[in-house]
Design goal:
31% of the residues are buried. A hairpin with a 2-residue loop joins strand 8 and strand 9. The chain is of the alpha/beta class.
């Protein structure tokens, strides 16, 4: 009869944990050295934005796809978000300006989950204040709620000018039930032409008069109205589309309101819906 192998002792297991912790720390320091080399390489090539929304989205897709085991995905996602955001901060210091007009707690939780505590958090009482702060900064980010509330008004008009800040990301990127920072938010930055990802393109569509027929027809043509607001300038809609503005103009013409003004206000990566991915994997 073969004797069973000796079970691990607590001291042996704790030694293994200490070994892994040290390895993780050394890998983070090694990452820091590479980031330092990256900063030097960018300086030699004339600089460039430290933000790479498309690369971040791809990193998160890989992370979710390979993850398994006891460690909750919430924890893993939070750790990686902090690593990404902090090393971006090391490359080029920035602050996160947040619109808390719809409530402070959820927005603060979301910002801390996605950007950590190293990046300064600056609260504002309106989305317009966030856009002004980002415009005046040398490279800060803005955060506003993606789900429009009427008191906010048509804040997205502030993104319509060609040189105005634009939406560069929608978070959380990994969607799932009971996400610890599940409030949908848009991330705003000065235009990042070389770093944009255009899975979903966002537009401001403003009608001096009318616009109701267009709003009701959007869903039929694959457009999503994310928010709409009426004021003295007319009816403004924030519309998400998977394509160029030409399709929007065609639908506006069908609605008989050709005098509408259309401006691109940003774009972001397609969301990774974990519940959908899990349901597909289970089939």
């Amino acid at each position: 009869m073969i004797d069973p192998p000796n079970p691990d002792t607590l001291d042996e297991l704790r030694f293994e944990i200490d070994r892994i912790d040290a390895a993780l720390h050394f890998l983070l320091m090694e990452r820091g050295k590479i980031i330092h080399r990256l900063i030097e390489a960018k300086a030699r090539q004339g600089g460039g934005s430290a933000f790479r929304p498309g690369r971040e989205a791809e990193m998160m897709r890989r992370l979710v796809s390979r993850h398994k085991g006891l460690l909750p995905l919430d924890t893993v996602e939070g750790i990686w978000r902090i690593i990404i955001s902090t090393f971006t901060f090391v490359q080029s210091n920035y602050s996160v300006h947040t619109d808390i007009s719809g409530g402070d707690a959820a927005m603060r939780d979301s910002c801390r989950f996605h950007f950590g505590f190293t990046v300064p958090y600056v609260a504002h009482q309106s989305a317009a204040g966030v856009i002004e702060a980002v415009t005046a900064s040398s490279g800060d980010l803005g955060v506003v709620q993606a789900e429009h509330h009427e008191l906010a008004g048509p804040w997205w008009r502030g993104l319509a000018a060609p040189d105005a800040p634009k939406i560069i990301a929608r978070l959380p990127f990994v969607e799932r039930p009971d996400h610890p920072a599940g409030t949908p938010i848009f991330v705003i930055a000065k235009p990042l032409a070389e770093a944009l990802v255009r899975d979903v393109v966002l537009y401001d569509v403003t009608f001096p008069k009318g616009g109701e027929d267009f709003a009701s027809a959007c869903a039929e043509h694959g457009f999503e109205v994310l928010g709409q607001s009426q004021d003295d300038a007319g009816r403004s809609l924030m519309v998400a589309a998977n394509g160029a503005a030409s399709a929007l103009r065609e639908e506006i013409a069908r609605a008989g309101t050709a005098d509408a003004e259309i401006a691109e206000i940003g774009s972001h990566a397609a969301r990774f819906d974990l519940s959908s991915a899990e349901s597909v994997a289970a089939q």
